[in-house]
């Protein structure tokens, strides 16, 4: 199976390096994406918006033959959801890594601090303790050294969805910061965070206890969890 990997904020294709071996060992063809504005700190991110990132993923789908799987981490999950909305007949499964589908009209995160027209990786104090679980000093240093400022528009532009067939595509949510049972309870109680998730007809929620960046803290385990989701 062709598996397209979509990184979260401040990350590009290289962030999946520790996850790819497990997927390839299982026989999958892996396509880790670097989205517009995230190749280098020197990239021009002016005017790059959510639609540009979605279009890049849709192009990756169109460049492949047959069905594909999308894997989106954090904000990358919102991009994956928009891409499956654009190509519901081409995507057979979506894996959301510490993320859930983002509904129409919502934004990924419009509360992050903007500096000089872009969003650099903030100070660690911005994040909750649950985000930083297992992210030790060495991993934090590596993350910060390789982080790329996020285009503001990707974080603040509204999600645009049009095709209800997206709800027919099976998904797996790999929840890290909070137990899977918490996500199930939010969904059952009609919480806005899981409103779009609640509409998906075939959704499985599984635990991978760690912080918000399992590709750094538990890469082998994340790879195994993705393989299991696609088995």
Automatic annotation (TrEMBL):
What does the record give under GO molecular function?
A: catalytic activity
Please state what the protein is called.
Pimeloyl-ACP methyl ester carboxylesterase
User: What is the species listed in this Swiss-Prot or TrEMBL entry?
Assistant: Nonomuraea dietziae
**Pfam family, any one:** Abhydrolase_6
InterPro entries, per database record: AB_hydrolase_1 (IPR000073), AB_hydrolase_fold (IPR029058), Sec-Metab_Biosynth_Hydrolase (IPR052897)
Which SUPFAM superfamilies does the record associate with it? alpha/beta-Hydrolases
Q: Which Gene3D superfamilies match?
A: alpha/beta hydrolase
Domain named AB hydrolase-1 is located at 3-222
């Amino acid at each position: 199976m062709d598996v397209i990997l979509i990184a979260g904020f401040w990350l590009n294709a290289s962030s999946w390096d520790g996850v790819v071996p497990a997927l390839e060992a299982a026989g999958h063809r892996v396509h880790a994406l670097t989205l517009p504005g995230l190749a280098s700190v020197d990239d021009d991110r002016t005017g790059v918006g959510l639609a540009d990132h979605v279009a890049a993923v849709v192009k990756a789908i169109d460049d492949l033959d047959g069905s594909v799987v999308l894997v989106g981490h954090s904000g990358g999950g919102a991009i994956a959801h928009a891409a499956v909305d654009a190509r519901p007949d081409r995507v057979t499964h979506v894996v959301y890594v510490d993320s859930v589908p983002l509904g129409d009209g919502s934004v990924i995160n419009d509360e992050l601090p903007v500096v000089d027209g872009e969003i650099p990786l903030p100070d660690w104090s911005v994040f909750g303790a649950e985000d930083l679980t297992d992210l030790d000093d060495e991993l934090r240093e590596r993350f910060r050294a390789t982080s790329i400022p996020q285009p503001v528009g990707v974080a603040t532009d509204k999600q645009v969805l049009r095709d209800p067939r997206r709800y027919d595509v099976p998904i797996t949510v790999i929840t890290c910061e909070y137990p899977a049972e918490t996500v199930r309870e939010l969904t059952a109680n009609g919480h806005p965070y899981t409103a779009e998730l609640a509409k998906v007809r075939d959704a499985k929620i599984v635990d991978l206890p760690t912080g918000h960046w399992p590709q750094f803290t538990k890469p082998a385990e994340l790879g195994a969890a993705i393989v299991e989701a696609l088995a």
